[in-house]
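Reply to dn_fold:

You asked what the input looked like. This is it:
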Amino acid sequence: VVFLMLLGAATARAAWIGTAGSGDLKQRAATQQVEELTVTARRGTITDRNGIELAVSEDAATVYGNPLQIDDPGAVAAKLAPLTGVSEDELTRKLADRSTGFVYLARKIPATAGQEIRELEIEGIGTETEPDRSYPQGTLAGQVIGAVGTDNYGLTGIEQRFEEDLHGSDGERTIVRDALGDPISIVDNERAEAGEDIELTIDVPLQERVEAVLADVGETFSPKGATAVVMDPRTGEVLSLANWPSVDPNDIGAADEEARENRAVTTAFEPGSTFKAFTVAGAMEDQLIDPSTRFDLPPELQVADRTIGEAHARGYVNLSVGEILAQSS
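and this is what came back:
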């Protein structure tokens, strides 16, 4: 009688699983066995005019988990915390959330740490290789190059300005696992395409020298900031663009907001007397004057509602173009 009762219970359970509970169980099985991943495209390399690398992408490991396959979230978190750099509490919280079958545990940790996690062979824990952005020249031209976020999108500088070219196209990958969590099928539904490389007109040795000069200016005069731009007058190419204080794109979050700005292209300055050279050059190019052309200059000039005077008091003078430029009159 007991045997028949047990057999009847098993038959009823089997019938329920095959009918009423089948939909939910199929969904849970699919969640545990099938994972949809985004394959991040490798960003293009940024180099100076001589091919010296300023921004490159290196392989890093991203760690993810399936909470539905984790029986003891605390124990798993204790093993992963030292390798991921994420606290045990945060890992435990993510792994204990059984409302989802996929959760990121750590993004872009060193590839060696990812290999150690794979060797642990923890059921429900997987790793994926994705590119991590690094800046081998450190602070050199930091504001010019800019930086990227965790999701590999440019945040500032060249990285942001040429995001569409540098980023490439992300791919999609489906991983099917067996009951033990081992992958039995990996299908790239859409292959990732690497971004384009970009060569700047910046010259690294010259950039280093200009930044050294600005560092001396900062140490001597303690200004709020300093900027220098070096251009080739024959082509207009920017050979060096430097800002002080410097920032390190490898740790862009450590710099304050003002330091991250590329003042040469974001800040408005009144050019003042430095612009005289351009107006004189324009007039000479149009053959309206030459360096010996003379002008009678009153003490002040009235332009609309503004009165413009010299930096120092003087009377009427007669100066040549060369003398006007030399004296900044």
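The first strand starts at residue 34 and ends at 39.
Hope that clears it up.
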